[in-house]
Amino acid sequence: MTTPAADSDTFKAAVQAHWDAAAGSWDAHSPDIRAWLRGATDAMIAKAGVVPGSRVLDVAAGAGDQTLDLAEQVGRSGAVVATDLAPAFVAIVQDRAARAGLPQVQCQVADGEDLRVDEASFDAAVCRLGLMLFPNPLQGLREMHRALRPGGGVCTVVFSVPQKNPCISILTATALRHAGLPARDPFAPGSLFSLGRPGHIDDLFRTAGFRDVATTAVEAVFRMPSVDHYIAFVRSSASPILQILAGLGDTAAKAAWDDIRAQLQAFTTPTGWAGPNELLITAARRP
Ligand SMILES: C[S@@+](CC[C@H](N)C(=O)[O-])C[C@H]1O[C@@H](n2cnc3c(N)ncnc32)[C@H](O)[C@@H]1O
Prior knowledge:
By secondary structure, the protein is an alpha/beta fold. It has a domain at about 5-160 and about 190-220 and about 275-285: Vaccinia Virus protein VP39 (Rossmann fold), CATH 3.40.50.150. It is about 45% helix and about 20% strand. The protein has 11 helices and 10 strands. The protein has helices spanning about 5-30, 30-35, 40-45, 65-75, 85-100, 135-145, 165-180, 200-205, 225-235, 240-245, 250-265; strands at about 55-60, 80-85, 105-110, 120-130, 150-160, 210-220, 220-225, 270, 270-275, 280-285. It has a 7-stranded mixed sheet with strand order 3-2-1-4-5-10-6, with helices on both faces. Strands 7-9-8 form a 3-stranded antiparallel sheet. It starts with a helix and ends with a strand.
């Protein structure tokens, strides 16, 4: 699925503006995000075939949590090139890598659909929770395919279906209702679940030219001390919900957040708040 080029440019400009604004908050929540995605990240790095000395491309790197893990894995004899559409994120990764003493990390602002890296110049490529936001994910996969040497490994992590990610579904549906907007196709291009339909991402990988494509669904429970901590995270970093509620006045917005909070309370446990999620980890190689 693709969108016309002009729409795509407008969409990406909005995505970039949002993530530039949210970058600091996403970074501030790095410890929570790190714990949430620990298992998926370890699996992604292993399935992409990253080893000491590898040269790795990290697409839509965000605040660079997985970039630093990749840098530890490849060591000083390897390299990690972290790319993101949002310059604010790229600056954060640069800073984090410098503070962590990881000179093997290089950073560049780049659209994942137009990476501007040399053909066949990487041993492995990864993209954690980024590809589903691309208006044309097939083009993103073609770019990763082009960047990999023959035999190189790729691995992406995306959200699966709405039913397995109930908190995101509650957030979206409730925000739309309060904004007076109709329900949306959950699988629309560029949305959080756009690659979640069973088999869809595998088809895209194969169409992009990859072989040995395999997708695994993994549970990833987002744990926070309380529902209010989760809502604070969402309010400071989750783009689609904020965009939906942007037009509401203070009173209407408060009513929406109160409604969201009441529903998300269902995930409070005796030891804190625990929101279920399911992720799809897709691995393949360039023939
Ligand atoms: C949910 S964050 C994930 C960041 C990071 N990979 C992580 O897992 O913590 C999504 C990231 O995708 C980036 N992004 C969205 N569309 C993009 C595109 N077309 N090209 C490159 N990056 C993009 C955003 O700027 C943001 O950093």
